[in-house]
Amino acid sequence: MRLSPYLLSLLLLANQGLQAGEPAANPALAEAFAGQVKPFLKKYCTHCHGGEKPKADLALDKYLDQAAAAKDREVWEHVLENVRDGIMPPDPETKPGQAERDAVAGWIEKQFTQVDCGLKKDPGRVTIRRLNRAEYNNTVRDLCGVDFRPADDFPADDVGYGFDHIGDVLSMPPILLEKYLNAAEQVVDKAIYVHGPEKTPLHQFEAAEVGHEGGGGAHGRGWGLHSTGEVFVEFDFPAPGRYALRGKAFAQQAGSEPARMAFRLNGKEVHVADVTAVDTEPMMYEKQVRIGPGKKRFGLAFINDFYDPKAPDPKARDRNLYIDSLEIQGPLDGPPPPLSESHKRIIFVKPDKKNHRECAEKIIKVFASRAYRRRATADEISRLVKFVEQAEQHGESFERGIQLAMEAVLVSPYFLFRVELDREPNNPQAIHPVDDFELAARLSYFLWSSMPDDELFRLAAQGKLREGDTLANQTRRMLKDPKARALVDNFAGQWLEIRRLKTMTPDPKRFPGFDEDLRQAMLKETELFFSSVVEEDRSVLDLLDADYTFLNERLAKHYGIGGVAGQEFRRVKLDNPDRGGLVTQASVLTVTSNPTRTSPVKRGKWILEEFFNSSPPPPPPEAGELKEDDKTVLRGSLRQRMEQHRANPSCAACHARMDPLGFGLENFDAIGAWRERDGEFAIDAAGTLPDGSSFKRPSELKAILKQKKADFARCLSEKMLTYALGRGLEYYDKCAVDEIAGKLAQNDYKFSTLILEIVASDPFQLRRGKGAE
Amino acid sequence: MHKPWQVSRRAALKGLGTAIALPLLDAMLPATAFTAFGRALQAAEAAKKTPNRMAFLYVPNGIHMPDWTPANVGADFDLPPILQHVAKFKNDFMILSGLAQDGARAHGDGGGDHARAMASFLTGCHPRKTHGADIKVGVSADQVAAQKVGQQTRFASLELGCEPGAQNGNCDSGYSCAYSANSSWKTESTPVAKEVNPRLVFERLFSDGQQGESKEARAKRNQARKSVLDFALEDANQLKGRLGATDQRKLDEYLSTVRELEQRINRAEQAADEGLPNFKKPAGVPGDYGEHIRLMADLMVLAFQTDSTRISTFVLANEGSNKSYSFIGVSEGHHDLSHHGYDKEKQAKISKINQFHVDQLAYFLERLKATPEAGGSLLDHAMVAYGSAIGDGNAHNHDNLPILLAGRGCGTLRPGRHVRYEKETPLNNLWLSLLDRMESSIDQLGDSNGRLNELSA
After folding, report:
1. Do B226 and A186 form a contact (C-beta atoms < 8 A)?
2. Taking CB atoms and an 8 Å limit, are A171 and B193 in contact across chains?
3. Between chains, do B108 and A623 touch, taking CB under 8 Å as contact?
4. B396: which chain A residues are within 8 Å (Cβ-Cβ)?
5. Sign of CA dihedral B56, B60, B61, B63
6. What's the rounded Cα separation, in Å, for the pair A37 and B387?
7. pLDDT band at A746, cuts 50/70/90?
8. In angstroms, what separates the C-alpha of A479 from chain B's closest C-alpha?
9. Is some CB atom of chain A closer than 8 A to the CB atom of B9?
10. Which residues, in sequence order, are CB contacts of B411 under 8 Å at separation 6+?
11. What pLDDT score does A22 carry?
């Protein structure tokens, strides 16, 4: 079997000398090196990769024995990939035969992937992780009680190892900090109410759209008064109080005085403004007035018209007033609205005259500690309290000061990054458990993609998280919480590649039935199905094949299943053994198809990659794809044409692994509907896998997949561990994966076992310093 | 006060609708003399001060080269089918043939030409093959300029795209998706994420203040922002000292973005009151792909015109994109098609996709040309590079690349020609030459081994 990606990406630990978990000397490996590898290098490699000027700076002639070779893991992983995939030696050099290649590949795999799990184990090290978009949304929701998903406008997070929350890959482009700052302002604005005139209701009126009296006419959206006249609006003032009356205006000036604009309430003049603004820059004029409740007429009037056709400057002959808009705001001194839950939760003490500082400290201590997912330090609290003091010194409210302190917390790296500290950050031998707060955060971001809740915080603060069964009980509790839905959105959505469904564009001519409703229904089916495994703690093998799924009428019709009416999804028992399990769901079948047809290759590759972590290498560049029509050289059904294509020996080895798996699903068209024929050809869903097992239809293919349950459990353990840690797996993680997959098998493949074993594993519980680079 | 032939900046803006900020209109130039000679002098003077701009447009999966490469070189070059779509601008662009991007080649790393092509396009470096740990390629040409002259504008650079980074999965044969989605790299390990939503681009460019916010309120908000950023900076500096090497790099990225944002706020304060341009705020991502591209092009033009930035990258689709172009009658996925196996029909479909993309380029050039500036057009003061780091999608070759360079670069480029360079001339020689024209000269970039001659001669 091909190495999983994590075994190939061993870039960091190559030159660090003996690591925890490094294999001891092994005579068989020494013999194999001398007997097979060394002669191979001499015959095929070292005439280029050797001598004084080795090509690509790769000198393979310096490895005189196994001991020398064993030191350069990175080099050999590179050699493995090139030899196994037939990339090297290049044309027109003599190529080694398959047996020779297998021998060398076998030695490299044995030499570098066998880890002694009995020794001190290496838990690895997670690179500091900033919150990704989903985590940011969930965290501000749980921290501030606001649910408006500000991160949906952030740039997409880059993906590594199949997931978008990998510390090594998450970078900090300049635009992101702007977004964080904007988001922080919006979040505090929604979470905390700061009373001020700008918060009172504002009513705006375009001057052209309201009532007019006297000489004038529309001027864009505004109104021009060329002689004495008024622009007015009837308004029902809701409550007694102080209101701001405003008019945005400018004037064409003439004569000795500026244009004058009178503010009138029910015809009574309450204020006169000198309008000095000119057309290039209209200004807002305002008068605040106490007004009782009820309907009143607010008018703005031009009261000093002037016209002198003989004035020497032609531009100074006519005085006109132009009004763009009217505004009424208030009551400015009305009572504030009732406070939101989020406000009351964050500002949980109300300061009186003397104890502002004390209250600010209390509030900030709680908020910052929750945001930083640890106790905030005295120094941090006092620096944050300064925001409150400064706001108050500048005449702003206590609440505004708290807002500013919250903004500072929300852009602090202690909030945006999940910080885990080492006493010896650069010593790879210094292995230590993460502290209780860090563990609580690992747990909550793993299961909820969000911050720990109060219960987890309390346990961490009391140092009780690791006592007895506490951690396991907490894990079980968290899996039952609705927030565990994050596992569906973020783990399953990425693992199964179904997030891509929203960008799939099946050809509307061939698949006129595909529309947005169907797309949503496909997604929903898989989400509900995966959720059922989580919530009911079912066997993960159900993911491979199950006798139930979740459908609404639209999707049921698409599948040709009767008796399901209406929009809502419900659990449906499947009578046909060919339908059931992830590989038969339309979501997966569609993301593994081309826009115009099915792709047995993509489906086969998907199964190998996502179920068995065993993806074949990419095709050589000149491989070419299948012709879309059957008039050219290759003839027959899609399957027959693929088989002709596979006659090419350079393609055969890999396609023999992928294609049969895909053929087994040929009864499902490119959007997952059942079919017996493809055009003029009857579907042939039979296949034989390289190990000789064969099947005739989808149900039999699934039965074979289920027999490979140990491989599937291992693959799922690797994917889930990668997701839990936020880093790619390394060779030394093999021990942890063995244990997790083993326990999973012992425990009837129950989903909770997978999660509990990951939480209990060394890579999840421990960390170490970083090696020198 | 105003002389009739002079228009104040504000007045000009008013005339165009709501308040709009334009840097320089012809009539704003001081009219010292009314002779033709005087005007010519004026224009020359203004042109000298008019800034140069650079934009890089990337298209994935290579191009059907027989429909791209002109047979003749020189000014009398012919226009094959794809270039027919920019025929109108024949005198405004040149085709540069024969350039190569060696960093995109395998060099023993096996598959992954798509990821490597995008990552190397503007960096000229060979990306390290990794799913995620220790991403590394090189600094891209646009970011070199952004670091050298970016502080002269409100935004150092603008990164645009139409497809977000991949949402999941392995993007290309063992390469992190960061490689195949990002052409712009701030440091060798930090890609600059692109913005794909036109509404967000617009808001970022022009909504520094909130709608209707007074000057005082805005000043107060900027003050608050600065004190918040100061706080963050202090935290970051303190935290950095407690971390290991890799984590420190992440904090460095954070620190530099905090400092940049502080500078940007300062620059925005010093700049004149910008206001909102006379451009309808985009509602979001249009459903129509062509409209999406054109809206992004509009925004680039607007950003250049208002001198909000002088440097931009625009990835029309991610490398390896398997988008279906059914709206032009090509329903197969672009990447699937690009492995055409020399099938004529498939090649014709690829050419059709190429022509669609070039149609959008034509729109961008049209808009630049239609925007007057300092006695000429915006296109006269810009350098627009368009192309791919894959030649043919089936061969996955990285030499003889399709590269089009439009604009006059403030008189430093002489478009209207087809130039064929010697085989294996690094594409980065072109980038180095463009950097010279942005007052951003450096000695070397990636695998460059000199400047490109014949651009201006």
Report:
1. no
2. yes
3. no
4. 621
5. negative
6. 44
7. very high
8. 23
9. no
10. B47, B380
11. 46
Phi, psi of B77 (to 5 degrees): -85, 155
Give percent above pLDDT 90 in chain A. Answer: 60
Query: Which ipTM was obtained for this model?
Result: 0.79
Q: What is the CA radius of gyration of chain A?
A: 35
| CA trace torsion A500, A505, A507, A511 (10° rounding) | 70
pLDDT tens digits along A27-76: 888 888 888 899 999 999 988 888 888 887 788 988 888 888 888 877 88
Query: Parallel, antiparallel, or unpaired: how do β-strands B311-315 and B158-161 relate?
Result: parallel
Q: How far apart, in whole angstroms, are the C-alpha atoms of residue B442 and residue B439? A: 9
Give percent helix, percent strand, percent coil of chain B, each to the nearest 5.
40, 15, 45
Q: Are A703 and A741 in contact (CB under 8 A)?
A: no
CA distances (Å), B381 to each of A676, B146, B289, B373, in order?
Answer: 62, 17, 28, 8
Q: Number of Cβ pairs closer than 8 Å across A and B?
A: 285
State the pLDDT confidence band at A84, using cuts at 50, 70 and 90. Answer: confident
Which of B142, B176, B222, B340 to mutate: most A Cβ within 10 Å? B176
Quickly tell me which residue has 């004038």 as its tokens: A216
Interface membership of A266 toward B (CB under 8 Å): no
Instruction: Please judge whether A497 and B243 are an interchain contact, meaning their C-beta atoms are less than 8 angstroms apart.
Output: no
Q: Which strand (E) or helix (H) includes residue A332?
A: none
> For residue A620, what pLDDT is reported?
60
3-state class of B205 per DSSP?
A: helix
The pair of structure tokens assigned to A445 is: 């971001």
Amino acid at A752: S
pLDDT value, residue A86? 72
Whether residue B23 is preceded by a cis peptide bond, meaning omega within 30 degrees of 0, is no
- Both tokens of B238, joined, read 């303190």
pLDDT tier at A5, thresholds 50, 70, 90: very low
Which residues of B143-300 form beta strands (DSSP E)? Answer: 158-161, 185-187, 190-191
- Beta strands at A283-291 and A241-252: parallel, antiparallel or unpaired: antiparallel
Quick check: A14 pLDDT over 80? no
Mean predicted confidence (pLDDT) in B93-104: 96
Inter-chain residue contact B257 with A594, CB threshold 8 Å: no
The per-residue pLDDT for B167 is 52
pLDDT given for residue B278 in this prediction: 66
Evaluate the CA torsion angle A631, A633, A636, A641 in order and state its sign. negative
Judged on CB neighbours under 10 Å (0-12, 13-18, 19+), A468 is exposed
At residue A355's C-alpha, the angle toward residues A352 and A360, to 5°, is 100
